[in-house]
Structures are given as C-alpha cells and as structure tokens.
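Translate structure to sequence.
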C-alpha cells in the first residue's frame, strides 16, 4: 500500500514538472518575463496652451471671448469716440453722416432707425456697438447673421464719458492691455480739458440750439465741459435744454453762440432777442453746437474758437466772425 502511494506521488511530481511552466504562467499575479521583446513606454509631455490674460473680458456688460476682428459702430458719436481713441483698426462700418477722419473711407450701414441690412451683411461685423436700440425685427435679422448687438448707454456726463473710454479699451484691447490703454486715454483727455482752461475773468455766453428758448442748460455734458474751459453758461441754472420763459428778462449774455442753421438776422427780427445786448452789439456767432455736445476732441477745437472770441488774450483758437447776414449790414 505504501509502495503504491509513493509511486503515485512520484508520477504526479513528474507530470507537474512537465507542465509546470504552463501552469505557473496561468497563476494570477505571477510574471517571469517573456522571450518576446517588450517596448519601453514613451513619455509624451502634455502640451499646455498658453493662457492669454486679456481674454475673455467683460466690457459694456457683455462677455467677449476673444479679441474682436470686425466691429460696426451704429451711432455717430460712438464712432467719433472710437476714432479719437485710435481704435478704428477693427471698425469695419459706420453710420450715416460720419465724415471725420478714418470714418470717411468706411462703408455706411445706415442708421439705427433706418439700417441698411444689405450693407451690414456685406460688412459682416461680429459686433455692432450702438447708443440706440434696433427694432425687434431688425435684431432678429441681425442675430440670424450671427452678429452680436451691444447697446450702450450714451454718456450724459464727463465721468460717464470717461467710463465709456475705459470700457471701449477693454472691449478692443482685453482685460490687461485694456486697463492701461483706457487709463492712459482718460489721462490724455483730462489733460486736454485742462489745457483749454482760461484763467482770466470769465464772461457769460449762451448756446442756442433752436429758437425760441432751446439752448444748452446746466445739466448737460457740454455745459460741464464749457465750465471746465472757463465759460459761464447763461442757462447754467436750468435743465432740459430749455431756458424758462418766465425768467426771460434775466437772459442777457455778453455773447451768443448759435447753432449753424441759425443766423444773426433771425435774432434781430425776434421780439425775444432783438433787444438783448449781444444782439444789438453783433456779438452773435455760429458754431456747431451739435458737434460740441459730443465732447470729443473735435469739441475742444470748437471751444478754443469760442474762447478766442470771448477773450482777446486767449491765443489757442481763432476769433469767429459774427453770424451775418444782419439786417443792419450795409
């Protein structure tokens, strides 16, 4: 019995030795290598795209994912501000009645009220910046063209204008470059205002937009600019572009500046104006009051001429000619 048992054990050991390698190879977790060559793992470094600190950025309340390439300006004043800032490189279209600087060579897209949709389609802007809202049907059509319309509140004060400049810089230049660009331009703008300032005895002037009582009042951005330059606004105590009829007796400025479509003779034949000191003394001059209201760089040139006309010792501007024809002209 013992001999048989030992014989069985020897036989089993022999079989195990013959198939041992295959058996061991099948034991989970054991690996004694292979005769086949094994490729060493190749290390591939992860490619990390550089992060642009400028984009995305939020400007005018809108998230801008990347630098705009084609932008249309749909409001004349807005286009002029961008031109002043030397940001016209990415502007591909402007509204009607833009003839200043670089705007004169760009295609027109009409106005917000009467947009030229074919011109907009041809210009193919990514964004339209505007101070006025398009009609709903126009907005839908623009959205179908993949155009983002950004409606911006038009500045009503010099501080609001400064903030517009900062936001425009962010929009075109990005989060980092835009901050420095915007602050630099605001500093340049403020320096230009300071350079306008007349330090001598100031005179009172009225700026008439339309007859009879419509003029620049004290609540306007342009009145703020006039005060900073050294001109006392005859309607500075009032609001809403209207001089109160009940206070008309106190209206007697040293000089009257008229919008370009009004003439001295219009005042000389008006019962309201003909007895006023400025009218009797031919101290009435035409200026572009609409352009002045934008408070752009062009406005500074208008104010320089006004200052030179008011103050003989101010030499940075050109003295204006009276707003003839006059009924007394010989």
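Result:
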């Amino acid at each position: 019995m013992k001999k048989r048992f030992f014989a069985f054990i020897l036989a089993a050991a022999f079989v195990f030795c013959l198939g041992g390698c295959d058996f061991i190879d099948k034991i989970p977790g054991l690996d004694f290598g292979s005769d086949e060559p094994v490729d060493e793992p190749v290390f591939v470094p992860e490619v990390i795209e550089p992060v642009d600190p400028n984009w995305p950025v939020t400007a005018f309340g809108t998230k801008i994912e990347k630098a705009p390439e084609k932008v249309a300006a749909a409001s004349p004043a807005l286009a002029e501000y961008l031109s002043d800032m030397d940001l016209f490189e990415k502007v591909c279209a402007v509204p009607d009645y833009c003839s200043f600087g670089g705007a004169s060579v760009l295609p027109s897209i009409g106005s917000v009220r009467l947009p030229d949709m074919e011109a907009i389609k041809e210009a193919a802007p990514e964004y339209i910046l505007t101070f006025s809202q398009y009609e709903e049907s126009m907005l839908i059509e623009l959205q179908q063209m993949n155009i983002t319309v950004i409606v911006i509140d038009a500045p009503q004060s010099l501080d609001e204008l400064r903030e517009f400049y900062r936001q425009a810089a962010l929009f075109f230049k990005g989060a980092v470059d835009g901050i420095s660009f915007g602050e630099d331009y605001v500093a340049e703008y403020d320096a230009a205002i300071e350079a306008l300032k007349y330090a001598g005895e100031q005179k009172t002037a009225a700026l008439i937009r339309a007859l009879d009582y419509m003029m620049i009042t004290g609540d306007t951005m342009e009145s703020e600019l006039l005060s900073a330059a050294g001109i006392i606004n005859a309607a500075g105590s009032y609001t809403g572009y209207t001089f109160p009829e009940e206070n008309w007796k106190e209206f007697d400025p040293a000089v009257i500046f008229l919008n370009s479509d009004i003439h001295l003779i219009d005042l000389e034949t008006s019962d309201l104006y003909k007895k006023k000191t400025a009218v009797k003394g031919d101290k009435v001059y035409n200026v572009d009051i609409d352009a002045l209201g934008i408070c752009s760089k062009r406005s500074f040139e208008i104010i320089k001429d006004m200052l030179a006309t008011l103050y003989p010792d101010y030499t940075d501007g050109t003295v204006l000619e009276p707003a003839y024809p006059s009924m007394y002209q010989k």
